[in-house]
Every structure is written in structure tokens, then in C-alpha cells.
Amino acid sequence: MFRMSDALRYWFLVLPALAIMIVFYIWPLLGIWQISLTEPKPGVANYTEMFDSTAVQTSFILTFRIAILTTIGCLILGYIVAYVISNFARRAKPLMVALVLLPFWVSVLIRSFSWIVLLGRSGIVNDTLMATGITDSPMRLMHNEFGVVIAMIHVMLPFAVLPMMANMRGISGAYVDAARGLGAGEWTAFRQVYFPQTMPGVMSGALLVFVLSLGFYITPALLGGGRVLMISEYITYQIQEFLNWGLGSALSVALLVATAVVIAIAARFVNLRSALLERN
Amino acid sequence: MTDPILTISRATKRYGPVHALDRVDLTVEEGEFLTLLGPSGSGKTTLLSAIAGFAPLSEGRIDLRGRDITSEPPEHRDFGMVFQGYALFPTMTVRDNIAFPLKVRKRPASEIKKRVEYCLGLVQMEDFADRMPSQMSGGQQQRIALARALSFEPQVLLLDEPLSALDKKLRADLQWELKSLHDSLGVTFIYVTHDQDEALSMSDRVVILKDGRIQQQGVPDALYNHPRNRFVADFLGKSNFMDLPVRGREGDALTCAVGDTQFPVEAPGAEVRGDVLNLALRPERIRLGAPGEEMLDGTIRQVSYLGERCLVMVDHDVIGPLLISQATWKEGVTPRAGLPVSFGWDSDACVVMEAEPA
């Protein structure tokens, strides 16, 4: 009987997934690179146009600003949630973890529409504010960066909570006990002993949220109402509205490169292997 | 005698219906090496946590030099503590770990530097100051944990099974070091362990706990030679237990019988209820001889050779199998299975056991 060598067996198992990736992902991606250099005529015209355009620059700056704000918001809120679940929840722990994961099972589209219901001109928040007399006229809570950041923090929160929770699970309570036994108050023990140990979790949560935010489309498109053009939406406009495939492709390449640069910089501070692959 | 440094009165800790500590009274003298010894679940670690302030008592109180500290948070108690898993802060160097208790006490930098050097010297780890804890072996980490707990000159040092994760040889070395450190510093040590050898070799006084209650306390040799009840006699070393009828009594001198053979038992102060005595007899107190040489006759069932001594299991018609420990360098009978022998003991070898509290 024919026996496969280990190497052959390995390739047989990997091959189906690899084939799909190459045919349906890598190949079209290379096509995008090609289009960016050939449409409408061969050369680097798309890239020079991209670097010269103030609209593109504005969109890139906006994208990074929103991604940074979202990351900061997710880290602060997520840290508190992860900390409470890891250190205080006992019987409620499975329930709290389920509540963190719950948004994953609801479509991003539905979650974004819910925020429109909440933040719209005659949404629940504005109605309540006016009914209680805190404001006279409705405030603009969406179709601006404020609304986009709020909704994005909501969508991205689990991606911050999960790596931080995984990290905190590995930190023994003995460290804080030791710190307090050695004379440190609760706050000092947290700041000097517990918090530094959670940095790997914080960094991997930050990286995950930031990278996902850079290329995010649905939520900014819905909550921004066309006024907050993050780079993904800008690309869609170029291709769908202006049929400008050349510039659209060049922007996609630029986004890909920007994301790769972020990951490369982060890799100097975060152990990516432990951050993204192994949950310790 | 000076006043005790710590007084624990009627300390009780309940977890639901379980009493982890049940009305424990204990005093700790200034400068002594006190060991809390017991099997897992005996309450020894709970008692230490209560002293450290991590596990508040359900009832009872703890006084430190006459000051009630029952409800003080751990950081105000000024006790050094060495944990079972060392608990060195993994994000700090050895130097920063040892400096930590001094920094939180806002001591001046020059003093911190001096103290850290001094404490590294105490545990002979001067060359490791800039290492991270993860770069050191268990024994090395344990020394640093000790240096850290001593750096701020605490009034009492609490040690929670500090040697249990180390291998046997290293453990023996560190026992000597801990003991000499205690003797040279004069700090009060409260040491928790489940290892009887550790307890006997280092302590000034041993407290034996079971089910949240103190069974017996005293200096090591008193505990070993005069265990009060069966639990203590069995937990501390090995013992043979015999229930034998009393045949006579004159003052402290009792006469017991094994079958037709009568023998004297010196049991000063023993309370004898009924006409059956529960006796404990250490294996090393039994003499082994040729048939007819000693008081009773039996047959060797099994022999276990341990190097410096061997353990001999001897069958007897009435008292059943009896464990005898014999030094291997001794002349006389060479024990082997199936050999008929005789055995006997001195009148002060047997200890009368108290009836177990129901």
C-alpha cells in the first residue's frame, strides 16, 4: 500500500485551504496592485495623485485619528471589564463572559443601526435630553466623528476585552497579596505590581482594535452619514461612484502598507506570537 | 519572660459550614522560630493568612504587642511574608523586588541602596541583583523572596511552605540557612509546613494542627517523645499502636500485659480510664534479639533496607505486625524475612495516648 511521507501528508492537509486563499484572495489582491499601476494608463500616476490630493490626506489622517480614539476608548472600558471579570466575578463569570461575546453573534449592521436609533436627531438620547429640559434643540450626536467613535468602540470592545482577559487569567493573586504584605496599599499594589503584568494583554488588545479599526467600513459609513469619510469608504466612493479603479486600487495598496507598517512597529513592543496565536 | 509579640485568641474562620479554624488560642514569643505543622486542610495556612491579614477572622482577635490588629489591612501590619510560589514580581529585577517594600515606605534612596546590598549578602545572592526572576532557579528565587521579606526589617517573618517546591537536597541546605538566618537576625519566624522533618529540625516550638484545632504544641523533642494523642504520634514520625489490658498500678508505674507476658510502663501523669491502655511505641525504641533473648517472640515478615537503618516488620500472635527500626551498623541479628526473633523495650519507651476527642 502507498504510504505518504510526513511532509506529503502535511501538504495534502494544507492544500485545500491554501488553494482557496491563492485563487480567491492572493490572486485578486495582486490584480489590485496591477490595476493601481496600469489604470487608466501604465505608470505611477495614481500614486502621485494620491500623495498630492488633500482629500486623500484628510481621509488618512481622519482614519488614524478615529482608530486611535477607538483604541483608547476600548482599552479603558475593556480593561475595567476584563479586570472585574478576572478578579471579582466568581459565579457570575460565565454570564459576564457571555455578555462580552454576545455582540459577536449580532450582525455589525444591526448594531450600527441600533446606534442610529439611539443617537439620531429624534433618537432616544435626544428625546430624553429634551424631555428632561437639559437641551432645547436636538444635539448632533451622529453623522460626525463623535457618533462614529462611540459606535466603533462598542463594536470593537470584545477585541480589547478578550486578549486582556486571557492575560489577566494568568496572573496569580499572590502577587498583589505579596505587594500588600510588603507594605503597599491597594492602589500602589495595583499600579506597580498588577498593572505592569497586564501590559502584554493591553498591547495585543490595542493592536487588534487599532488594525481592525483602520480598515473598518460599515459602522463609519452608517454613523458617519457620508460626512466622516474613513479610508475604506473613500475607496468605495472612488470605485463605485467615480469608477476610478486606478486611484481606488492605489488607496487599497496604501491602506495595506499602512497596516503592515503598524504591525511591524508593534512587533517591536509586542510578542505577536503570544498576542495573536497563543492565549496564555 | 517578656510579653509575647503576638497573641491570638479564640481565632475562628468559617467557610460556610466548614470551620477552617476553630477557637485557636496561640501566643508567639519575641524572637522565636514557631512552626505551624499539619496535613493539608488542617488550618495552618488559614491561620497564617489571618495573621498576615489576607483572610479576616470570623471571630476572635489578634494582638501585636498588645495592639489589636484584627481588622488592620495587611500593609499596616509590618510583617514580612514569603510565599509558597515565591511571588517575586516578574516585571521587576531582583534589586527592584528587594527595594519594593522600602520604596513604598518612602525610605531615602541611599538607605534603600544599602539595605538591598545588605539583604542580597544575607542570602548570598550579590551577583544576581540585575537578573529578572524568570532567569533564576527555584532555589535562587526563594532566596530573593526571603531577602525581599527581610529588607524592611519586619517585626515578624511569615513563611508559607517556602521550601515545598524545591528538591530534597536543596531543601535540606536551605533549612540550615533559614535556621542560621533566624538565629543571627533575631526576627520572629512563623513557619507553615506539612513536612515534619522541616518542623523538627528548625523550630524552637512546633504547633500541630488538625481540622482547625491545635492538637499539641511544644519543643520538637517533647512533641516527638511525648505525643499526646494518636494523631500527633502518627503524624510526627512513625509509631506502633497497641491496645493492651492494664494488670496493675502503683503511682506512675503501670503494668501491662501482652498475652501472658507482663511488662512495666512508666507513664508519669497519664490519665488511665478503664482497664485498657492505648500505647504508642516508636519503632527505634524496640530492641531486636535472637529468640529467647528479649521479652517477646515473633517472626520477621519483611525487611526494608534504607541505608543508615533498616525497617523490620515483625509478626506477633497477639499484637500483630510491629514496625521496628534498627541501625544497620549494629552487631547482632541480621534481619531477613522468615527469621524467628525476639524483641523488647524499656519501661519508658511506651507513651500512653489520650482518648481522641469525639
TrEMBL record, chain A:
Domain ABC transmembrane type-1: 60-266
GO cellular component, one term: plasma membrane
UniProtKB keywords: Cell membrane, Membrane, Transmembrane, Transmembrane helix, Transport
Compartments (UniProt record): Cell membrane
Residue intervals passing through the bilayer: 12-35, 55-85, 97-118, 146-166, 201-223, 243-270
Its membrane topology: Multi-pass membrane protein
GO biological process: transmembrane transport
The family this protein is said to belong to: Belongs to the binding-protein-dependent transport system permease family. CysTW subfamily.
PANTHER family assigned: ABC TRANSPORTER PERMEASE PROTEIN, INNER MEMBRANE ABC TRANSPORTER PERMEASE PROTEIN YDCU-RELATED-RELATED
Protein name: ABC transporter permease
TrEMBL record, chain B:
Keywords in alphabetical order: ATP-binding, Nucleotide-binding, Transport
Listed SUPFAM superfamilies: MOP-like (SSF50331), P-loop containing nucleoside triphosphate hydrolases (SSF52540)
UniProt cross-references to Pfam families, sorted A to Z: ABC_tran, TOBE_2
An MF annotation (GO) of this entry: ATP hydrolysis activity
One BP annotation, GO: putrescine transport
Gene Ontology terms: cellular component: ATP-binding cassette (ABC) transporter complex
PROSITE patterns: ABC_TRANSPORTER_1 (PS00211), ABC_TRANSPORTER_2 (PS50893)
Domain named ABC transporter: residues: 6-236
Xref: PANTHER family: SPERMIDINE/PUTRESCINE IMPORT ATP-BINDING PROTEIN POTA, SPERMIDINE_PUTRESCINE IMPORT ATP-BINDING PROTEIN POTA
Protein's UniProt name: Polyamine ABC transporter ATP-binding protein
Species assigned in the record: Pelagivirga sediminicola
